[in-house]
Amino acid sequence: MKDSQLENGEARYKMMGFGDIPNDKILGLLQANGYRGYVSLEWLKRWNKNLTEPGIVFPQFINFVRDFCD
């Protein structure tokens, strides 16, 4: 999964839940339809040095997804 927001006509990666993609609704639909598999975060700082540090982003992603697992 990833999230982004349009800024000056370009997509900019955002932490999960802070962009324009309705990831909360997507996770809700997966759960409502019985999906019990994995979800993962795509955060490619190696190729985009402007991204927030993984040590901040991954715990936030885990908490975002965990809300749908309970």
Could you characterize what this model shows?
With 70 residues, the protein is of the alpha+beta class. The protein is built from 2 helices and 2 strands; from the N terminus they run ββαα. The chain has helices spanning 23-32, 54-69, and strands at residues 3-7, 10-14. The chain has a two-stranded antiparallel sheet. α1 packs parallel to α2. The radius of gyration is 13 Å and the shape is globular. This is Xylose isomerase-like TIM barrel domain-containing protein. It comes from bioreactor metagenome. InterPro entries: Xyl_isomerase-like_sf (IPR036237).
The neighbouring-strand order within the major sheet is 1-2
**What's the number of extended β-strand segments?**
2
| Tally of DSSP helical segments | 2
Strand content: 5-15%
Structural class: alpha+beta
Overall shape: globular
Largest sheet: 2 strands, antiparallel
How much helix is in the residues? Answer: 25-40%
* Measured distance between first and last alpha carbons: 19 Å
Runs in which pLDDT lies below 50 for 5 or more consecutive residues are none
Mean pLDDT: 92
In terms of quaternary structure, the protein is single chain
In short:
This protein is α+β, with helices and mostly antiparallel strands and 70 residues long. It is 37% helix and 14% strand.
